[in-house]
Specification:
Elements: E1 23-24, E2 41-44, E3 53-54, E4 57-64, E5 66-70, E6 76-79, E7 85-93, E8 96-97, E9 100-101, E10 106-110, E11 114-115, H1 120-130, H2 135-140, H3 147-150, H4 154-167, H5 191-206, H6 210-218, H7 227-236, H8 249-252, E12 253-257, E13 263-267, E14 275-282, E15 293-298, E16 316-325, E17 332-342, E18 354-360, E19 362-369, E20 386-394, E21 399-408, E22 417-422, E23 425-431, E24 448-454, E25 465-476, H9 482-486
Parallel strand pairs: 2-11
Antiparallel strand pairs: 1-5, 2-6, 3-8, 4-5, 4-7, 7-10, 8-9, 12-15, 13-14, 14-25, 15-24, 16-21, 16-25, 17-18, 17-24, 18-19, 19-20, 21-22, 22-23
């Protein structure tokens, strides 16, 4: 998918004319008057977020001298160096990200005067350059011993940027775009912003920690299993491509199952030359995810709802599930789910926000949402949520099902939309209606796709096992079309 059609359309941020304070240290003798030196080092600061770092303290420590500044409403900062000699290390701390206090320290390096952005990407580069997972400790030591700074060259910076592109292989443009000097504005389509926001989305959707990434960067170690797949997904707007194979299952998906042999690849019933994933649930399986299930979830695709974002932008996603109910399927009397989009894990016990499942032999669509907010006098619970079930007929064994969802997620009254298709036929549609839970609380993934067998009451008495087949899940950005989303799956069902 064209990167310019990414799933990153962020609310417009005011480009104010507020100028941050210019503080030039190291005054020499002579020279009178009140003339202020022109800024000659400047940049934009941001964190693990889709917003700039506002009112952050900028500390510029050079091989000779230092300077201070404060980021403005667009994350911009500038200083007028007068007597300070590069190379310079820059640290930004404090301030706010999306009105939330920032507790992380971010760093960058300037071999020359000019543009010096400070973001998680430049911070990871500094971790590699300094060989430490705690760049803030390295920076703090420069005032007493600037030798590590004075020895830095542009060649070393370029080497560390190259190392970082290997650590974060899910960001292909990082090999060609310098995050330190490339213009950074917090708008979709800006190359630097798109990379920073993809990193933030990948961290959120995989529950990875920034501290772990700092350690990976410090040792030039490729980021952990699944992270680069999620990073590429966040950058391109597609979380995984099909078909699912034995070689990409472990890198593109995470599995929840209570049996070690429950995931196998078998011939496609319709096209035996192709392999599809068989997901089996056994009566004697261990509990997985606090229940009876064998399911897979693609890395990436989790959505943390931004309540201020425009419609059909950052909160919107396409989801496509392709699964097969075998000819020997025995209805599970206690009910089961074949495909779902899970809500916020902090709503416990929580229902999926969208689910396609069976109650015995009946096939149904179940939808749930809640407008109550975490931290309010009446937080979201299962008892105060709104639910809607649509009977779709009966389960047809020996059939491939193509289940497609377009959701513009919202838990705000009067906002949100949902369109759902089954085997090419529209089965549900609404607009200006909430469709998920509050996602603002905690770091848990929200609104993420799953497919397989989830039988909350277990299998039927005496039933040894049950299985379904899957060609996987596609998650795409809102700029995609129905045809583009389903094109990943075979046309013959």
């Amino acid at each position: 998918m064209d990167r310019n059609n990414m799933n990153i359309l962020v609310r417009l941020l005011s480009v104010g004319t507020t100028v941050c304070a210019l503080l030039a240290s190291c005054g020499g003798g002579g020279g009178g008057g009140n003339d202020t030196p022109a800024p000659n080092m400047f940049g934009v600061a941001g964190g693990i977020s889709n917003a700039p770092l506002i009112n952050g303290t900028v500390n510029v420590s050079c091989a000779k001298g230092s300077a201070l500044a404060t980021t403005n409403s667009t994350g911009a900062w500038q200083v007028a160096l007068s007597g300070q000699t590069p190379p310079c290390a820059v640290e930004v701390s404090g301030g706010t990200l999306n009105a939330v206090p920032n507790t992380q320290f971010y760093h960058s390096i300037a071999v020359n005067q000019g543009t010096v952005n400070v973001t998680p990407l430049t911070d990871l580069m500094v971790a590699n350059l300094a060989g430490t997972a705690t760049p803030s400790t390295w920076f703090a030591g420069l005032s007493a011993n600037p030798a590590p700074l004075t020895a830095i060259t542009q060649i070393q910076v370029n080497t560390s940027l190259a190392n970082l592109s290997t650590v974060l292989s899910g960001l292909p443009p990082l090999s060609a775009i310098n995050p330190i000097t490339t213009t950074l504005t917090y708008y979709s389509g800006n190359d630097n912003f798109d990379m920073v926001f993809a990193l933030a989305n990948a961290i959120n959707s995989t529950s990875s920690t920034y501290a772990t990434l700092l350690g990976d960067a410090a040792t030039s170690t490729a980021a952990g299993p699944g992270f680069n797949a999620a990073l590429l997904a966040a950058y391109t707007g597609i979380t995984t491509s099909q078909p699912v194979t034995a070689s990409n299952l472990s890198t593109n998906y995470v599995a929840q199952t209570g049996g070690s042999t429950n995931l196998t690849f078998v011939p496609d019933p319709n096209t035996p030359a192709s392999q599809v994933l068989q997901m089996t649930l056994g009566a004697n399986d261990l509990v997985a995810g606090s229940s009876h299930r064998t399911e897979i979830t693609p890395y990436g695709g989790s959505v943390i709802v931004d309540t201020t974002a425009p419609a059909n932008s950052i909160n919107a996603r396409w989801y496509a599930f392709n699964f097969y109910i075998p000819s020997g399927w025995v209805p599970i009397t206690g009910g089961n789910i074949f495909a779902q989009i899970h809500g916020n894990d902090h709503v416990t016990p929580g229902n999926p926000v969208v689910a396609l499942g069976a109650d015995g032999s009946n096939l149904w669509l179940n939808l749930n949402y809640n407008t109550h907010l975490f931290g309010s006098a009446t937080p979201p619970t299962r008892t105060n949520q709104t639910s809607n079930s649509v009977l779709l007929g009966t389960v047809t064994p020996g059939t491939w099902y193509l289940f497609v969802v377009y959701a513009d997620w919202s838990y705000t009254p009067g906002k949100g939309s949902l369109s759902i298709w089954l085997n090419g036929t529209s089965i549900y549609s609404n607009t200006n209606t909430p469709n998920c839970f509050d996602t603002s609380y905690g770091s848990y993934p929200s609104n993420y796709a799953k497919t397989g067998i989830y039988a909350w009451n277990g299998l039927n008495s005496g039933q040894a096992s049950a299985y379904v087949l899957s060609r996987g899940i596609v998650v795409a950005d809102p700029s995609a079309t129905y045809a583009q989303v389903v094109a990943a799956f075979p046309t013959t069902n």
